[in-house]
Amino acid sequence: AQSVAQPEDQVNVAEGNPLTVKCTYSVSGNPYLFWYVQYPNRGLQFLLKYITGDNLVKGSYGFEAEFNKSQTSFHLKKPSALVSDSALYFCAVSDNTGGFKTIFGAGTRLFVKA
Amino acid sequence: DGGITQSPKYLFRKEGQNVTLSCEQNLNHDAMYWYRQDPGQGLRLIYYSQIVNDFQKGDIAEGYSVSREKKESFPLTVTSAQKNPTAFYLCASTQGTGNSYEQYFGPGTRLTVT
Q1: Staple B100 to which of A16, A32, B44, B95, CB 3.0 to 4.6 Å?
Q2: A100 touching B, CB under 8 A?
Q3: Residue A81 has pLDDT above 60, yes or no
């Protein structure tokens, strides 16, 4: 069965500092990994994905994530945080066995302080 | 939120009434999903559909029903059997082929049952 863990309910960083939002996963096959962002009372927006290829993937708004197979992790990173990055971030995983079923983590709330 | 519409944005119902939430997409995506979001619990999958006239139960399907008569539409009915229906409901779609497995989300419907 697929599962996703986001160990931090909340991450606080100062504007201009690097940020990391952690995610670990479990799937039976090869993982398809995703990060999404949600602003208050809105739907989720896709940020980036890992399907295959380079372990470091780059996405929207300067975000990137590194796929680490041995640690089953897919942490979201950004070199310099902005106040406007404050939002709720979700990690998600699908396996490639068909069915397109995706499991989402519980979410991590990011606060960026000016 | 582009390409997926959900209506209405806010919905109020009395306990014991069935209610249907609308989801329409113009992205020509094959797969569609319904999720429920509660505070601190992330997104939980209710139903998903890979193709017209076919759908599968997700993790919390009890008290819900769906139909997929058209590729563009995937309405969700919250029945009176759903014990705790008050939540934020999100519809999503994905192409699910090639390298395109990310989901596109609608703006959500906030259902309040009293």
Answers
A1: B95
A2: yes
A3: yes
